[in-house]
């Protein structure tokens, strides 16, 4: 299963980079520059991606032309939204280094930093464990 | 008073045995949480404080469960129950049968109803907890599926990088855990700061903090409105952040962690809708920058001992009566 997941990423990566619809044959040939992969495997995974709604396809002659449904940037933005969003029920799902804050809170942070005589880039002090 | 309350002539008059678990519920559910959330030592020793919150939660579940049991059991029955429990524990189960002369058939409808009511409290918590965990995992799997396609694994960082200008650092705990940083975060952070934030996230993963956050969430869903639930819901995640900060400080300097905190927070587009994280980040910042003075251990010890007692008494006083001195 791990291999299938990697292959999904490889296929998506190529289609995003090319920025145009491509056939399974083109994708297989390109991956084969790096490592051997069977045509049927790529076809199966492309079909999975299509069913997951990540790729759309249209018939061109006898082959399918595949194309990403959305751009890489759009998916990345969706992930960032998911990660930084202010949903209370996300608390247990993923843990953020710092919560999204209001401007007042950010300036409170700044004040706290300055009150301690620290500014970014100031002299290091040994980080003694508590 | 004991005699009055212990009068068991009426069917619905609760026995005096209701009082101890009820008192423990009040202490663990209202008084101790308020004191704990105001105490100074909690933020200095976050791991100990989290343990205390867990004990308070267990004490509350046990005492509410016992209160339900005692409300429904007739006084005489509750005494029997205590002897039954005691004999079972002492004899390791060998003498259980002799205390129920009529076998299980002799327990009676009311007894069963009491047992079911008592069991329903921990059961409800367990169900909600598991549901919370499953829903969190579903969200993580969905997130990780997409992340695998657009993120790039960086073995030298031990993290997955997302190409995005906004600085963001988070982790996906649980099975196949991973730390995620945005390219925007790598842009604004120095190497020491990157180490600091990655260590912080790895501490969450290693400590399985998501389980405790889920437990606090489940607890809050069931005992909504109770000070213990309301306070634990905000305090436990904050204490876990502090515990992760402490762990990160073993590998990085105070400056690196504090300035990284500011860099990531200030780099994200400020938004009026997000007030939730603010004060807690300031608390963390002050704490990171101020090496802790040794805090008064006496007060802390008293508090922990009190909580442990509250958590244990419901079990010890399974029925608050010692055979021989019970009032019948």
Automatic annotation (TrEMBL), chain A:
SUPFAM superfamilies: Winged helix' DNA-binding domain
InterPro entries, sorted: BlaI_family, WH-like_DNA-bd_sf, WH_DNA-bd_sf
Example of a GO MF term: DNA binding
Signal peptide span: none
Entry keyword set: DNA-binding, Transcription, Transcription regulation
GO terms of biological process kind: negative regulation of DNA-templated transcription
Protein's UniProt keywords contain Transcription: yes
Domain of life: Bacteria
Family per record: Belongs to the BlaI transcriptional regulatory family.
Protein name: Putative transcriptional regulator BlaI
UniProtKB/TrEMBL annotation, chain B:
Residues spanning the membrane: 18-36, 48-73, 111-130, 302-325
UniProt keyword list: Hydrolase, Membrane, Metal-binding, Metalloprotease, Protease, Transmembrane, Transmembrane helix, Zinc
InterPro entries named in the record: Beta-lactam_resp_regulator, Peptidase_M48
CDD domains in the cross-refs: M56_BlaR1_MecR1_like (cd07326)
Domain of life: Bacteria
Cofactor note: Binds 1 zinc ion per subunit.
GO molecular function annotation: metal ion binding; metalloendopeptidase activity
Keyword Ubl conjugation on entry: no
Domain Peptidase M48: from-to ranges: 159-215
Cofactor: Zn(2+)
Protein name: Peptidase M48 domain-containing protein
């Amino acid at each position: 299963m791990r291999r299938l997941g990697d292959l999904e990423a490889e296929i998506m990566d190529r289609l995003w980079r090319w920025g145009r619809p491509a056939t399974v044959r083109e994708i297989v040939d390109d991956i084969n520059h790096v490592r051997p992969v069977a045509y049927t495997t790529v076809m199966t995974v492309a079909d999975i991606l299509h069913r997951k709604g990540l790729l759309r396809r249209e018939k061109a002659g006898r082959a399918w032309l595949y194309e990403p449904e959305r751009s890489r940037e759009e998916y990345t933005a969706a992930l960032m939204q998911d990660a930084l969003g202010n949903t209370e029920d996300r608390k247990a799902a993923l843990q953020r280094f710092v919560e999204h804050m209001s401007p007042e809170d950010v300036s409170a942070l700044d004040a706290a930093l300055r009150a301690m005589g620290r500014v970014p880039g100031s002299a290091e002090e040994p980080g003694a464990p508590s | 008073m004991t005699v009055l309350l212990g009068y068991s002539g009426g069917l619905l008059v609760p026995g005096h045995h209701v009082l101890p678990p009820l008192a423990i519920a009040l202490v663990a559910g209202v008084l101790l949480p308020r004191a704990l959330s105001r105490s100074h030592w909690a933020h200095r020793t976050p791991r100990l404080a989290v343990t205390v919150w867990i004990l308070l939660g267990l004490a509350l579940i046990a005492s509410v469960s016992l209160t339900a049991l005692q409300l429904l059991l007739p006084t005489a029955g509750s005494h029997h129950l205590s002897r039954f429990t005691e004999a079972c524990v002492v004899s390791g189960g060998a003498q259980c049968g002799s205390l129920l002369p009529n076998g299980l058939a002799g327990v009676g409808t009311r007894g069963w109803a009491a047992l079911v009511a008592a069991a329903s409290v921990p059961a409800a918590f367990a169900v909600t907890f598991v549901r919370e965990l499953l829903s969190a995992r579903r969200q993580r799997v969905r997130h990780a599926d997409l992340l695998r396609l657009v993120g790039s694994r960086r073995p030298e960082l031990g993290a997955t990088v997302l190409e995005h200008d906004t600085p963001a650092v988070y982790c996906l705990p649980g099975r196949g855990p991973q730390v995620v940083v945005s390219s925007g975060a790598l842009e604004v952070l120095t190497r020491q700061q990157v180490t600091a934030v990655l260590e912080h996230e790895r501490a969450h993963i290693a400590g399985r903090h998501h389980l405790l956050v889920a437990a606090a969430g489940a607890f809050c869903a069931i005992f909504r409105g109770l000070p213990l639930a309301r306070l634990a819901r905000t305090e436990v995640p904050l204490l876990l952040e502090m515990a992760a900060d402490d762990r990160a400080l073993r590998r990085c300097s105070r400056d690196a962690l504090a300035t990284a905190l500011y860099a990531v927070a200030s780099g994200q587009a400020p938004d009026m809708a997000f007030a939730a994280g603010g004060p807690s980040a300031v608390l963390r910042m002050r704490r990171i920058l101020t090496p802790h003075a040794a805090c008064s251990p006496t007060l802390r010890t008293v508090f922990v001992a009190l909580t442990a007692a509250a958590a244990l008494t419901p079990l010890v006083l399974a029925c608050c009566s010692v055979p021989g001195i019970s009032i019948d």
